[in-house]
Design brief:
homodimer; mainly alpha; 3-stranded mixed beta sheet; 20 helices; 65% helix; 3% strand; globular
Chain lengths: 492, 492
């Protein structure tokens, strides 16, 4: 047993190093790599991916884990062995040739998607998407032939979640979100234009962001902040978590940096004892997103926060807009075509729309040929909008081209978890709003670290949430949060 | 034969990817990595180094190469097989345990060196240096037991060079350099202080550097320019060569960037047909250094260049210093303690001093205990200076702590080659000075690409130089270059 344990920990240390290297290759590709280096970078990525695959599928690892899974292990070792064996079994179920075919297909599909975006025409992309759907369904069958394929794909991102549960939850949420939206649309304020014109040099924007990240306790010596087209967070090692933002619009840069810093704080907060094991990762994608959204929406778009922070910021806002108007401007609700620009209320509807379509595509009850009509019909139903072009509709996201089916729901799972955390914290931390106003985030961060971050992947996300806040995934809390926040904004 | 050839090219492609990954890890460590990430980075480096070692020492590669070396190959295949086999044989001669011991020792020695630098005291570093010298000697014996150890180490950096040849060459050069220095010291101008005070924001410095790099035809889409404490160049792939500079002093930043761009142009100019083979590298370290020094000293510290470039630069120089004085200020000759700050004349003396000491250390005719005295005696002899502290003397360079014995001579080999190229170009390209004044570098770069860069590692450096300029390594050309340039500056 001791020999096998030492062996599997040594393998996990190598795997951590390989994941870290892969992360560096990816980070660099999106931040600093010269434009023409794509081909050598692809070769480098392939070498690392092959090594990870070979390491994960090595018979010796599998056999060691099988032996250990029959041993009377407890505590960390027990969870490490169970989780790693589960992962190894999964990777071993994907034939190497199939995996390579899948990688090739999504690379081509992403290029086709970019091409289709340039032409603003879904047609040429449809056959690529059909092939991706087919292969993702096959992948699910490889992974677990006894399960509904979409359930398998969903579990790759959100372990423990089922389509049945999600459909029920989203059906409830959809009704509530449409109701909130209709309430807001019926107010006089809905059609008011709040002028918001912020002028800051890039250097100044970076200063403000740095100030905020330090308030959030993001450690300078374990992180970096760079620039990329699409902001992201990536972990290269226990003391090496990198975030990016973009400087197009000062508020976009600010909120994006805070969002990514929320992701980074999660990664940095995972218990040290899990370093170099399979447990040194987030419990689920949804839980990861809850951390970014918590800081972006619940904290940085909070009225209390701006009561404290706005005096410092106001001089950069044209006309020195009063706090009330500024707060309303950054929390405007407006049905729109594009998910990434959506507000807190309509974002969920964008996700539900995508969930329903991708679930049906994988189930085979919707064909790619009919997907655009389905998209537009749902847009009409949920938003009373009809996309004028494909780029404003079904072509807007790269996710499906990249094979990421079962990913979209995690955005809204993240919002729900974030609202549960926020409701819990405001109810249990005395003077929470005052702390937020004073940018005294230490008590909040300490709570997050203790109850969420430190757990890593040692427990299911829903169990972590139930232990932390008293309930598993609970959309009613999200609805309560939205009503508490937005009805006063529009009717107050 | 075909199967073996395909195999060895596939292995070289993997090796290229691994070297590229290792280069990225190193580049990132020196530019963007968070300070506390050292430990995970060391793990990542170790994984890659082990993979390279395992790939290079695999029996199948060795056997394929042995078969091929007996085949009637010609052209590129012949050179690739011979060079790769030579490399493989060398790596196989270093026992894995010895290699790991060596790596550990130099890591510790470098830490001890940093510590000694802080204390400004050579004593605590001496025992580490003794161990490094011992292991480097052993390494040389592993590599070739029949050769003088220092000759083996020298060949690792400058293939084809011998200590006997180098001693003769440096003895000649030493006499000449001391003579030039004495001539200069006897002039009235030697003691004149030229005031040089340049004021430019970092953004402005970067603009000027960018302008110059574009003039040098450094392609934006295949390179990057970052910041690091010590400027360096590193190749991650055929279209991915990165340089750095530092912004402490505007002229230092400018010349350092040009120096590194010279290195980068070399890497970028190696013939495409050698990509992903062992020939896709510089012919020698000295040849590499010749390219950086050519651009830094022969071009960017050239009077013609500043005739064209100074009008653009002058407004940043305090008092708008006239061209003549500016030119003299950037080409001041002054014996000093520190190699990295040395001028073109005294730099060679710094190198010869180090060469003589490191050669004798490896030969065993000088002990580490006596090295400091030897250093100071040579400083007195060559420069008429005595270091007041160890940091100004034997502790100033990290090279020996890092195990780089046989490296120092390549700096001066680079200067000699650069002078040969410069003398050849000014004699053979019509209007060469006018082109330099007009920053029209295309004809010069075309010549360098055709005669130097493109060859990669397919020929010995000296043969490339002989073909290009009519002579192998020729210190007389360097002496001529120095006299032609500096006597007019001081006596003109």
């Amino acid at each position: 047993m001791k020999k096998n344990l030492a062996y599997i920990y040594a393998v996990q240390k190598d795997l951590s190093a390989l994941y870290g290297i892969g992360a560096l290759l990816g980070w660099d590709e999106r931040t600093h790599m010269p434009r023409k280096a794509v081909s050598s970078r692809a070769d480098q990525q392939k070498v690392i991916h092959d090594l990870i695959y070979d390491t994960m599928t090595a018979d010796k690892l599998f056999e060691s884990l099988q032996c250990l899974s029959n041993d009377s292990l407890t505590g960390k070792h027990r969870v490490v062995v169970d989780e790693l064996l589960k992962e190894v079994v999964k990777v071993r179920r994907i034939p190497r040739a199939f995996y390579q075919e899948l990688v090739k297909t999504v690379v081509m599909a992403q290029a086709a998607w970019e091409d289709a975006r340039r032409k603003n025409d879904f047609t040429s992309f449809a056959k690529h998407l059909t092939r991706v759907v087919e292969l993702k369904r096959q992948e699910a069958v490889h992974l677990d032939p006894d399960k509904r394929p979409y359930a398998v794909l969903l579990n790759e991102h959100e372990e423990g979640m089922t389509p049945e549960k999600l459909t029920e939850l989203f059906d409830y949420l959809k009704t509530e979100l449409i109701d909130i939206l209709n309430t807001i649309k019926a107010t006089a304020r809905f059609n008011e234009q709040v002028p918001l014109d912020i002028r800051m040099s890039q250097a100044r924007q970076k200063n403000v962001i740095d100030k905020m990240l330090r308030k959030m306790q993001l450690p300078r010596d374990r992180t970096s902040l760079d620039i990329s087209t699409h902001p992201f967070t990536i972990k290269l090692g226990a003391n090496d978590v990198r975030i990016t933002t973009r400087y197009i619009d000062p508020l976009d840069a600010f909120f994006a940096a805070i969002h990514e810093a929320g992701h980074a704080l999660y990664e940095l907060g995972i218990a040290k004892k899990y370093e170099n094991t399979i447990l040194f990762y987030a419990s689920s994608v949804g839980m990861h997103e809850s951390q970014s959204r918590f800081w972006e929406n619940m904290i940085a778009k909070n009225r209390s926060f701006w009561e404290g922070f706005y005096p410092y910021f106001q001089k950069h806002v044209a006309g020195g807009l009063p706090l009330d108007q500024f707060y309303r401007a950054i929390n405007q609700i407006k049905p729109s075509f594009i998910r990434v620009n959506a507000d807190e209320v309509t974002y969920g509807l964008h996700i539900i729309l995508r969930y329903e379509i991708e679930r049906d595509l994988i189930d085979g009850t919707l064909s790619v040929a009919d997907a655009k009509d389905a998209w537009n019909a749902k847009m009409k139903h949920y938003f009373d909008l009809t996309p004028a072009t494909d780029n404003d509709g079904i072509l807007q996201d790269v996710h499906w081209a990249g094979g990421a089916f079962g990913y979209f729901p995690t955005y809204t799972i993240g919002s729900i978890y974030a609202s549960q955390i926020y409701n819990h914290l405001t109810a249990t931390i005395p003077g929470c709003s005052d702390q937020i106003a004073a940018q005294q985030f230490k008590p909040i961060l300490s709570w997050l670290r203790k109850h969420i971050h430190s757990k890593g992947k040692s427990m299911l996300a829903e169990q972590i949430m139930a232990d932390a806040c008293g309930n598993g995934l609970d959309p009613k809390e999200f609805v309560k949060y939205l009503r508490d926040k937005y009805i006063p904004i529009y009717e107050g």
